Each structure stands twice: as structure tokens, then as C-alpha cells.
Amino acid sequence: MRFTRLANGLEIAEINGDETKFLYDEIFVQEVYAAYDLRVPADGIVLDVGANIGMFSLYALQKFPGIRIYCFEPAPHCLERLRINTAPFGEAVRIFPTALGDTEGEVEFSYYPHYSIISGMFANEQQDLLVLRAGAATQYRERYGTRPSERELDLLVGSKLKGKQTFRCPITTLSRIMAAEGIGHVSLAKIDVERAENAILAGIDDADWPKIDQLVVEVHDQGNREHELMIDMLNRRGYQTSLFTEPTLKNSDIYVALAKRQLIR
Question: Burial, 152: exposed, middle or buried (Cβ in 10 Å; 0-12, 13-18, 19+)?
């Protein structure tokens, strides 16, 4: 297993060095979540849905001391690193080796060993390649001030989607987890699950929506204006909402839906 020491001093277990650098820059250096003015009390519960190796959880644990985090990650390759990386925080972190959705049972999960952060239940290699190319183009333009050629994009993306693996994993709903764990209040739900976001929100019972103060959801527009439909739904649920372009994927059809209760406890 590979370990690396981040610039902030944290030593973590990683899958791919390029992914680690990307996530560290996005979460810890650019602090993309700080732009959303999230508020979590010292005894708050945070849900990290699509936890991967735990980079967001590590950020949240530093940003909001005293919180508890519930991590959801079905990929065994990520789970192994997630457990190691969050172990120093002891009982403040709970890890669930399951996918979340709108049903209970088993589903097929696709895992990209060379780029694990776009793994998911609804993997689509053609669409995933477009996402990768959009992200590479954004980073290239920010660094060099010009758009890369198609040849350069081919070299940048390389074989990141090669060797896709599929496996069966358990799936449950967020409401079932909340009931089983006795969770009466969620300060923040961060959801980043590569096209499964609508299924996860559909798995929240009507009675549980008022228990969730804030949501940050990565939304994939798959041609049906999913981001706008999600914002409308969250407005109807009583949230104040904002829609952002995913900052590191400015040329893709990926957005961030932010939803907050008017009074955050």
C-alpha cells in the first residue's frame, strides 16, 4: 500500500498519487467547501456520502472540531484506505461499506483502479471520459493560459479509465441508516456519488428531510437539466438554495447544489 505525506503534515494511505494531489488541492488548498459558508456545531453530525479515501472527512474533522462523521463507501479498494486514514479520529468516524440509494438490496458497482473518484453505480465510460477531458482542459488552461490540443488531452487523460472492475455491493437508503443509528439531526450531508445523487435523495423519507440542515450535492446534468430539477425539489423541501459550477470542472456538465435551512441549529 502506498502512503504519502500531504503538505499540511497529514500522512495518508492513497490509491493514486495524481488523485491525491487533485483532491488535496481542491479541498485543502483551494478550499472549495469554504465558498459555501457551511456551519457545523461542535456536536454536529456530518454525512460523507461517496467518501473515497476520506479526504473530505479529514478536512471536515479539522474544520469543525468535535463533529461526528458517518462515511459511506462501497469500493473495497477505497474502504481499506478510508479506514486507515480516519483511524486516528477513533469513534468520531463511523464507516459504512455500502452504497446509498432509493432501495435496499444489492447493486452492481463499477470501479476505475486508475481513477477511483469517478467510480460508481452508474459508471458510463463515454461520459466519464468527457468529464476527465473537461477537468484536464481546465487545469491545463489555468496553468498555461491556453486550451490544450486534442492530442495533449489524450496524453493528459492517458489510461485513467482502463481496467474497469465491477462487483456487487450492498445498498440501502439514508432514512434506513438514520433510523438504525438513531440519527435525529444531520448538520451537513455531502453527497458526491457520480450520477447516483438523485437516487440517494429519493431514499430520504418525507419525515427525515426536516432533520437535515445543509446539503452539498454534486449533480451531473445528463441531458435532462437534472441540476435545475434538483434545485426546484430542494426549494420545495424548504431549503434556501444556490447552484454552482463545479470549480475544477468548469467545462463539464457537473454542478454543485447547495441547500440550507433558514435556521441552522
Answer: middle
Query: Exposed/middle/buried for 37, CB within 10 Å: 0-12, 13-18, 19+?
Result: exposed
| C-beta of residue 70 within 8 angstroms of C-beta of residue 47 | yes
Q: pTM for the full model?
A: 0.89
Q: How far is CA 195 from the centre of its chain?
A: 11
End-to-end CA distance of the chain: 41
DSSP bridge pairs for 168 = 108
Give 189: exposed, middle or buried? Use CB within 10 Å, 0-12, 13-18, 19+: buried
Q: Which domains does the chain have, with CATH numbers?
A: 2-260 (3.40.50.150)
d(CA 128, CA 194): 9
Reference 218, options 255, 245, 253, 189; nearest CA is 255
pLDDT 10s digits, 137-152: 776 676 667 777 776 6
Single-letter amino acid code for the residue at 249: L
C-alpha dist (Å) from residue 203 to 41, 178, 200, 220: 26, 11, 5, 18
Do residues 126 and 114 touch, judged by C-beta distance below 8 A? Answer: no
Partnered with residue 13 across adjacent β-strands are 3
* pLDDT at site 21: 92
Q: Tens digits of per-residue pLDDT, 150-188? A: 766 766 676 777 888 999 999 999 999 999 999 999 999
Strands 214-220 and 254-260 come out as antiparallel
